[in-house]
Automatic annotation (TrEMBL):
Name the record gives this protein: Solute carrier family 12 member 1
Gene Ontology MF: a single term: sodium:potassium:chloride symporter activity
Membrane topology category: Multi-pass membrane protein
Domain of life the protein comes from: Eukaryota
Segments forming domain Amino acid permease/ SLC12A: 182-685
Example of a GO biological process term: sodium ion homeostasis
Principal cellular location given in the protein's record: membrane
Length: 1099
């Protein structure tokens, strides 16, 4: 349709407040076409705008005279909402299209709303026009509602302005933090722990300034590498709540995430107790100095700790805003304490401080303290193990990722800056304290130098003090002995005590918030179903109040136990395990080479991340080897548990990506290997239709392909392509999921085709990948061939011919009851639907019992209660009526039982193999594989082969020799010498009666009539054909007699499939052969290989 460029046609958008791309609504009608001749103004097109991204509504303005046209459009009763998005509207008067870039099209321009997940909290998800809508012919008489303009921008089913405003109101009370308050402050407070004030001086005394800096540097390397890896993961997509658990689970999958998430949340909960006990110990020390003990030191710690954790819980439950304010106050106190220390180092020392080892900055002290001087039992790694927990805490910001405004920006920036600032502080304190304070001091102001005394290079001696007796007896002061060195050095000692309080309380508060947040995210994912109770959140911020209570109880329990020295190494290792997995996640995602791995944070390297993971694991053993072992054991147990439970989640993890890459690499590598007969295995295409509709056919095939060969369940959809493709695509995932649920190691594949045979032909040629291509076609026997339309028979026999043409073996399986249970499934679905309706009706009645009209509903229920669900059938479906009446019948029961017969363990018996023709060995290989399976192991092979009646023993020996070379165990061998004799008259009569309806009988008619009949019914069996293959017909009937005689009691019969020569054997005659051959027998497998060796006796 040509576009009329009349100014009356275009309904232009308002120039202001435009969307990213302007979409116009086009109105075309005959009246406007006429008006175009009178109006010569050039058309006005709205420019594409890249302006206000948040403006998502389509705004429409009108030229003078066009407002009435649009009003008529809105008021007409012809408009109605469409499915999916804004469609074209066409009638006798008006036609409406979308205009993009000045063209009539339904194609939508790129928008972020198209890529959001359903239920996204950042905005509504928009459905772009489907490919079908764009590709198919434009629908006629499709109407739109007055709100269609909104739906052009917002997508189908997206809330309008009113709902958007409601959503904004809902978000109004939510507290979100920026990178400073949300990440930087928290990480700094957690990294600056008690270690800074009461242990760093001792570490410098033991390791010296040089090794002390190396210890700090090594710790920072671990945290920096982890921070870089975490930054890469955070910037590879939107980050939700859950911190380390969220990052690891979305990268490595629920198995790793679920295991580390649980122990990480527990570690944070116990860490609350550790920090609170550290605070309580400091308070108790102050009480000792003032002689104000309440009971005794241990119980005082418990009392103070319990009160403290209750107060911290109150702050946390009050809301994240209050908790953040408390953190800021604590940070200010901590910064003042640190600054107070640096100021104290330059304030001239008095005699009391000098006697305790503090002499301000002295080069001699720096030189003396530069090297290590480890005391008995200490070494580099033991000192490192004591210091390293001080460097942890880098996940404090990430743990509240759900409360950050922009986690992708905040976590990398805040975490890396916090690592940098705290590292400078640690290094500064370590170097300063090492340059100001000697290792040993007596604290006695009278221990000054006596004139003429030899200092022997002692820095204190050179500064006028003699601390030599500290070599022989313990002293109380100096770097090695006094944990309160920073208080002594500082300008105002109580500020250091305040700093210790701030460090402990801030760390405890951060852990008290982190543990419930991580735990809530874990519970929401429903990985551990028993913990679902703790997933519920409360208030605008979705606060995990239940998680707070649980964390409080855990912390209180460990405070009362007060045995934290034992548990502390395990907790440190729990944190390190999280760091290791974060590093490994970054490495794994990079190594998997997934196109979805596109982190905005580019300063990372996969091998550096792997080094960081290995380094974290090594540090775990350095800190405490038995704690590391316990950590690994717990994590392994949880990993196995989650793997076994197989949570129903799909996060697109790098584990999935690597699995794909590995499978692809292996498939490509397999193509370089030539096929060898020793490695042959049946790789089957099974024409099951939907796998649940013919379970027995799939079960018997799976029995000889499981863990050894390829199995593809195939379905052909016949009919109009549009409908077939829609049905095929909608059921693909469901049917593959059914296979997985039933633990069937098979793939599902489907094709849409004009006819069944064409679909199968496509599957035979195109299925598989590389060397993993099907070599065997498995089909069920067409039991209803005598009642089926001729085209179905032609297709059925045709696919056997096609398989042989493509050099693919064929297996036809026949069981007495048939395979198709689709009608039974249909009845079951109908019964389930009726049961659901009944339950819904009962629920409705209960909900309306108190209503005024409840009596009428009760009356309705009484009528419904009289329904017998097993007998009720919808009137509209006659097929369901018929089958549902059969549901209680014997035949239907037998069909259901038959559909599961190959799932059961087979009773002790035999598999009779009638290897009549050498097809390369497939007829023998399949039953042999079956005997290896657990369900068939009690069945022995009996081999039947044809032979001459006067050479039975010789041929039996020859066959036994061949089987022994093939290393195939067998119970017995039978040589059948009377295969080619005529069958008895009764059997032959049954065969003749079977084919009688399909015979042409042209020999009984004149030549003209015979030729006419051949032309009209070319599918019928001619007398000439029947006479030409009479011996073969005799053989099929005779074989059935032998099978009835010798194998009637077998568990399974495997029989060589007769081949119908193309152009010589009619389809109906071939079906008659198969029918008479397998009639009234146990389950039968008719097998014909492609006549290439599948067995060998060479090594």
């Amino acid at each position: 349709m040509s576009l009329n460029n009349s100014s009356n046609i275009f309904l232009d958008s308002v120039p202001s407040n435009t969307n990213r791309f302007q979409v116009n609504v086009i109105n075309e009608n005959h009246e406007s076409s006429a008006m175009a001749n009178d109006n010569t103004d050039p058309p006005h097109y709205e420019e594409t705008s890249f302006g206000d991204e948040a403006q998502k509504r389509l705004r429409i303005s009108f030229r003078p005279g066009n407002q009435e046209c649009y009003d008529n459009f809105l008021q007409s009763g012809e408009t109605a909402k469409t499915d999916a998005s804004f469609h074209a509207y066409d009638s006798h008067t008006n036609t409406y299209y979308l205009q993009t870039f000045g063209h009539n099209t339904m194609d939508a321009v790129p928008k972020i709303e198209y890529y959001r997940n359903t239920g996204s909290i950042s905005g509504p998800k928009v459905n772009r026009p489907s490919l079908l809508e764009i590709h198919e012919q434009l629908a006629k008489n499709v109407a739109i509602t007055p709100s269609s303009a909104d739906r052009v921008a917002n997508g189908d089913g997206i809330p309008g302005d009113e709902q958007a405003e409601n959503k904004e109101d809902d978000q109004a009370g939510v507290v979100k933090f920026g990178w400073v308050k949300g990440v930087l402050v928290r990480c700094m407070l957690n990294i600056w722990g008690v270690m800074l004030f009461i242990r760093l001086s001792w570490i410098v005394g033991e390791a010296g300034i040089g090794l002390g800096v190396i210890i700090i540097g090594l710790s920072v390397v671990v945290t920096t590498l982890t921070g870089i890896s975490m930054s890469a993961i955070c910037t590879n997509g939107v980050v939700r709540g859950g911190g380390a658990y969220y990052l690891i689970s979305r990268s490595l999958g629920p198995e790793f995430g679920g295991s580390i998430g649980l122990i990480f949340a527990f570690a944070n909960a116990v860490a609350v107790a550790m920090y609170v006990v550290g605070f309580a110990e400091t308070v108790v020390d102050l009480l000792k100095e003032s002689d104000s003990m309440m009971v005794d030191p241990s119980n005082d710690i418990r009392i103070i700790g319990s009160i403290t954790v209750v107060i911290l819980l109150g702050i946390s439950v009050a809301g994240m805003e209050w908790e953040a304010k408390a953190q800021v106050i604590l940070l200010v106190i901590l910064l003042i304490a640190i600054v107070n220390f640096f100021i104290g180092t330059v304030i001239p020392s008095n005699n009391e401080k000098k006697s305790r080892g503090f002499f301000n900055y002295q080069a001699s002290i720096f030189a003396e303290n530069f090297g290590p001087r480890f005391t008995k039992g200490e070494g580099f790694f033991s000192v490192f193990a004591i210091f390293f927990p001080a460097a942890t805490g880098i996940l404090a910001g990430a743990n509240i990722s759900g409360d950050l405004e922009d986690p992708q920006d905040a976590i990398p920036r805040g975490t890396m800056l916090a690592i940098f600032i705290t590292t400078i502080a640690y290094l500064g304190v370590a170097i300063c304290v090492g340059a100001c304070v000697v290792r040993d001091a007596t604290g006695n102001m009278n221990d000054t130098i006596i004139s003429g005394m030899n200092c022997n290079g002692s820095a204190a001696c050179g500064l006028g003090y003699d601390f030599s007796r500290c070599r022989h007896e313990p002293c109380q002061y100096g770097l090695m002995n006094n944990f309160q060195v920073m208080s002594m050095v500082s300008g105002f000692g109580p500020l250091i005590t305040a700093g210790i309080f701030s460090a402990t309380l801030s760390s405890a508060l951060a852990s008290l918030v982190s543990a419930p947040k991580v735990f809530q995210a874990l519970c929401k994912d429903n990985i551990y179903k028993a913990l679902q109770f703790f997933a519920k959140g409360y208030g605008k911020n979705n606060e995990p109040l239940r998680g707070y209570i649980l964390t409080f109880l855990i912390a209180m329990a460990f405070i009362l136990i007060a045995e934290l020295n034992t548990i502390a190494p395990i907790i440190s290792n729990f944190f390190l395990a999280s760091y290791a997995l974060i590093n490994f996640s970054c490495f794994h995602a990079s190594y998997a080479k997934s196109p979805g791995w596109r982190p905005a944070y580019g300063i990372y390297n996969m091998w550096v991340s792997l080094f960081g993971a290995v380094l974290c694991c090594a540090v775990m053993f350095v800190i405490n080897w038995w704690a590391a072992v316990i950590t690994y054991v717990i994590e392994f147990f949880l990993y196995v548990y989650v793997t076994y439970k197989k949570p129903d989640v799909n996060w697109g993890s790098s584990t999935q990506a690597l699995s794909y890459v590995s499978a692809l690499d292996n498939a490509l590598e397999l193509t370089t290997v030539e096929d060898h007969v020793k490695n042959f295995r049946p790789q089957c295409i099974v024409l099951t239709g939907g796998p649940m509709t013919r379970p027995a056919l799939l079960d018997i095939t799976h029995a000889f392909t499981k863990n050894s060969g390829l199995c593809i369940c195939c379905e052909v959809f016949v009919g109009p392509r549009k409908l077939c493709v829609k049905e095929m695509n909608s059921g693909m995932a469901k049917k593959q999921a059914w296979l997985i649920k039933n633990k069937i190691k098979a793939f599902y594949a489907a094709v849409a085709a004009d006819c069944f045979r064409d679909g199968v032909r496509s599957l035979l040629q195109a299925s598989g990948l590389g060397r993993m291509k099907p070599n065997t076609l498995v089909i069920g026997y067409k039991k209803n061939w005598r009642k089926a339309p001729l085209t179905e028979i032609e297709n059925y026999v045709g696919i056997i011919h096609d398989a042989f043409d493509f050099e693919i073996g064929v297996v036809i399986v026949r069981i007495s009851q048939g395979f198709d249970i689709s009608q039974v499934l249909q009845v079951q679905e109908e019964l389930e639907r009726l049961e659901q309706e009944r339950l819904a009706l009962e629920a409705t009645i209960k909900d309306n019992e108190c209503e005024e009209e409840s009596g009428g509903i009760r009356g309705l229920f009484k009528k419904a209660g009289k329904l017998n669900i097993t007998k009720t059938t919808p009137k509209k479906d006659g097929n369901i009526n018929t089958i549902q009446s059969m549901h209680v019948g014997e035949f239907n029961q037998k069909l259901v039982e038959a559909s599961t017969q190959f799932k059961k363990k087979q009773e002790k018996g035999t598999i009779d193999v009638w290897w009549l023709f050498d097809d390369g060995g497939l007829t023998l290989l399949i039953p042999y594989i079956l005997t290896l399976r657990k369900k068939w192991k009690d069945c022995k092979l009996r081999i039947y082969v044809g032979g001459k009646i006067n050479r039975i023993e010789e041929e039996k020996i020859a066959m036994a020799s061949l089987l022994s070379k093939f290393r195939i165990k067998f119970a017995d061998i039978h040589i059948i010498g009377d295969i080619n004799i005529k069958p008895n008259k009764e059997s032959w009569k049954v065969f003749e009666e079977m084919i009688e309806p399909y015979r042409l009988h042209e020999s009984c008619k004149d030549l003209t009539t015979a030729e006419k009949l051949k032309r009209e019914t070319p599918w019928k069996i001619t007398d000439a054909e029947l006479e030409a293959v009479k011996e073969k017909s005799y053989r099929q009937v005779r074989l059935n007699e032998l099978l009835q005689e010798r194998s009637r009691a077998a568990n399974l019969i495997v029989l060589s499939l007769p081949v119908a020569r193309k152009g010589s054997i009619s389809d109906l005659l071939y079906m008659a052969w198969l029918e008479i051959l397998t009639k009234n027998l146990p389950p039968v497998l008719l097998v014909r290989g492609n006549h290439k060796n599948v067995l060998t006796f060479y090594s």
